Structures are given as C-alpha cells and as structure tokens.
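Appendix B. One record, verbatim.
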Amino acid sequence: MEILALILTMLVGIEHLGIMGLEMFASPAKQAEAFGLSEEYISQREARVSFANQGIYNGMLGLSLIISYWIFSGAILIKVWLLLLVFVIVVGFYGGLTAGKKIWALQMLPAVLAAICCILA
C-alpha cells in the first residue's frame, strides 16, 4: 500500500505542477479551453494576474507533495502527505461547488485515493 500511496501522491503533485503551468504560462486560448472560460475574459489583465496567483499556489502545493518525499520519512512523511492531500481535497471540493463539477473528478478524486492509500499504509 505504501508504494501505491507514493505513486498516487506523486501523481497529485505532478498534476498540480501541470495546473500551475496552465494557470501561469499557457496562452489565453489554452487557458480558456482548459478552464471552460471565454478567451475574452482570460485576456483581461485582472484575470491573468488572478490566474498567475492561483497558479503559484498550485505549484507550491505540488512541489511540497513531491519534495517532502526527500525531506521526511516513515510515519512523518505519511502525515505530511495526508495534511497536503487534505488541502487538495478541501480546495477541490470547493472548486467543484463553485467553478465546475469536473474538478471533483480531475483534482479531488486523485487526492482522495492517495489519502486513502496513505491512511492504509
């Protein structure tokens, strides 16, 4: 179960780095397509700043999930992963309620599965 927890947690971390890339560096056309928003809205300066700000949070969360593997070990590592995965679950749940239900499948579900594996590890 520990190997599955490792794999799923790393995938959640990588996913969040990908989300960061979309939110911070993708073109407005790509962002509009990925997030189901109009390109006109995404092209506004305020929206670009908001996306970049949101992106840095996702990136740091993803990076924290990944690098914690080399900083912590044993039971402490599992607790750190659980804490970070709970953050992802809460944010994913709220995002699904406010922005779109596909967030539950794409962002929250992988974190829930990883958290379950961490609990069972």
